[in-house]
Amino acid sequence: MDVARQVFVLLSVLVVCWGFERCEAYGKFGFEVHHMFSDKVKQSLGLDDIVPETGSLEYFKVLAHRDRLIRGRGLASNNDETPITFDKGNLTVSIKLLGALYYANISVGTPPSSFLVALDTGSDLFWLPCNCGTTCIRDLEDVGVLQSVPLNLYTPNASTTSSNIRCSDKRCFGSRKCSSPASICPYQVSYSNSTATTGTLVQDVLHLATDDEDLKPVKANVTLGCGQKQTGLLRRNISVNGVLGLGIKDYSVPSLLAKANITANSFSMCFGRVIGIVGRISFGDKGYTDQEETPFISVAPSTAYGVNVTGVSVGRDPVDVGFFAKFDTGSSFTHLLEPAYGDLTKAFDDLVDDRRRPVDPKVPFEFCYDLSPNTTSIKFPLVEMTFVGGGKIILNNPFFTARTQEGNVMYCLGVLKSVDLKNNVIGQNFLAGYRVVFDRERMVLGWKPSLCFEDESLESTTPPPPEIETVAPSPTVSAPSPTSPPPVISATPPPFDPRNSTGGAASLIPLTSQLLLLLPLLAFL
Predict the structure, then answer these.
(1) The whole model's pTM is what?
(2) 279: number of CA atoms within 13 Å, CB side?
(3) DSSP letter string over 168-185?
(4) Strand partners, 412
(5) Which residue among 67, 211, 328, 497 is the active-site one?
(6) What is the DSSP string of 79-132?
(7) What family does this belong to (predicted)?
(8) Could you give the angle at which helices 3-18 and 56-71 cross, rounded to 10 degrees?
(9) For the segment 335-374, what is each residue's pLDDT rounded down to a tens digit?
(10) Is 124 a catalytic residue?
């Protein structure tokens, strides 16, 4: 098993178990990974004698296998042809240690090398760390993992299918910086004033597979950035092993797959709700005929998927706001400009019974609340967003939990005032519990509630995955029925990270312990 695959499996376990105080399941995966965990790591996680022996990997194995079976059997699918996914599988994982973005395990080159890349609809270029000297992260130990976990770096000379893209090539979007037509095409992609990747463009093979039970191999030639210099957050804890841009420009992976007639010009991403950290991705997926939809537009110079929000209601009471926003999977949280930010947060705050905490200048989240003593659930108002065309999204988990220095429970609304970004951004926290379809042929975004690895409308020949026992269940949110008067959603507080049971005045967990390091960015724009 190659290094990057070990990394993905390891991080899958860490992500799940860091979300729970205790993590148990039944059975074992087909190979042992507990050698990756030192005693120090187990103790720091508070999971002594649990992580190495659990069947958490089996949980992911069963889910992924079940998903592959049912993905080709949608009852109301729009798909004329079988979608494809990465050859390592359609599983994506939101890794808190790496900024809580969604990551996938992919293979590139000949022979194939594996990489752990962030999936980003807010950018276009697919790049990997490459010939980058001291600016590359070579081990996850360098970003906070307590055990040495090496990462692969892309080496064009080691791949027989790699070739340089010259400045004379029409694929060279950075040709203005070329010294001559025969020069190797340079690129630079900036995600913020201080975070960027710089290098040269190459072509190589991305290894894919049909997203069904056959898993038929598919090879695609893609434009790839050889990232020779990374700055800012790319050298700290964000996308340290590369980014797979999913934007609409012609050199993004979805565009290249469609142009080569490998898939339809569409793809889907599912954002977990029950676990909240596990999802899936599928290229060529057009979604369901009964999904809700809204047109999307792209406003230059941005290439993100922009939508018009026509209305918002909080606790079923309309809030007089409407705005243009980007759907961006590269953003962990949602960012809103004034007056939308003030109107939404005030309406939310007015309906929350728990005591609001004083604003802490060290914490960018302004609406945080102390959970009342002896309370086992969080009640928060139903928030619903309406888009052009009438489609609606009900927010399943708009908050995240935290623990104060005294060990008390607090929770925060995961909405930030958009100042540095200068845009409204609908981040992945607002998409939790939905399968979102980016249909670039019809220029629409579609969505439908989904558990990502379960579809109650389908029968499966595989047994359901084993349940994971936890001290406190993960967030469960249910919208009130139309006849139910209280406009409030009740949720069990997510469990806490045992590593952060003590900390600063607002030691935010599980998300913000790492996300506070990336708040100047939080979205790849």
Answers:
(1) 0.76
(2) 30
(3) TSTT-TTGGG-SSTTSBP
(4) 368, 400
(5) 328
(6) -SS--EEETT-SEEEEEGGGTTEEEEEEEETTTTEEEEEEEETT---EEEEBS-
(7) Belongs to the peptidase A1 family.
(8) 100
(9) 999 999 999 999 999 999 899 999 988 888 999 999 888 8
(10) no
Give CA–CA dist 335/502, Å, rounded: 29
List the single range of 199-208, 260-269, 471-480 with lowest mean pLDDT.
Answer: 471-480
Rounded to whole angstroms, the Cα distance separating 368 from 360 reads 10
Handedness of CA 71, 73, 79, 82 (dihedral sign): positive
How many Å apart are CA 415 and CA 312, to the nearest integer? Answer: 14
CA quadruple 234, 240, 244, 247: dihedral, nearest 10: -20
Which of 26, 19, 27, 17 lies closest to 48, judged by CA?
17
| Phi, psi dihedral angles at 324 (to 5 degrees) | -95, 135
Active site residue 497: no
Residue type, 68: R
Neighbours of 300 (CB within 10 A): 5
Q: Count other C-beta atoms under 10 Å from residue 143's C-beta.
A: 19
Question: Is 138:150 a contact under the CB 8 Å cutoff?
Answer: yes
**What is Dmax (Cα atoms) for the chain?**
70
Calculate Rg over the CA atoms of the chain. 22
In the predicted model, what is the mean pLDDT of the chain?
74
List 120, 439, 455, 497, catalytic entry: 120
Quickly tell me which residue has 């993004």 as its tokens.
Answer: 252
CA dist., res. 426 & res. 268, Å (int): 16
pLDDT digits (tens, 9 = 90+) for 389-401: 999 999 988 888 8
Tokens of 239: 């996308």
Cα–Cα distance between 271 and 449 in angstroms, integer?
10
User: Alpha-carbon distance 520 to 499, whole Å?
Assistant: 25
